[in-house]
Amino acid sequence: MLFYSLIGLCLVLLGTSGLQFVYLFYLDRVDKERKRHIHDLELQCKRLSARLSDAERRIAEQERIISAISIDSEDEMWADIIEER
User: Fold this and answer.
1) pTM
2) Start-end of H helices in the chain
3) Integer angstrom CA distances of residue 30 from 2, 20, 25, 44, 78
4) How far is CA 38 from CA 30, 41, 44, in A?
């Protein structure tokens, strides 16, 4: 009887260690997927940062052009107001 209980205990320990190995492989796969995802996010961040700097440069250029145009248009607008009076 003791022999059968020892065989049962060995099978339980074997099953437990098998379950631990399966869980270890699962955690390893999840870790690799997270690292890949983080790498993809870093690449996307670099790409978006480049687009943001390009957009800021364009906005600064457009604001410079608008400010140059608005000075000329204000002079013309005041000239029209003075002529009406």
Assistant:
1) 0.60
2) 2-84
3) 42, 15, 9, 21, 68
4) 12, 5, 10
**pLDDT tens figures, 11-63:** 999 999 999 999 999 999 999 999 999 999 999 999 999 999 999 999 999 99
At residue 59, what is the residue type? I
Alpha carbon distance 74, 38 (integer Å): 52
Amino acid (one-letter) located at 22: V
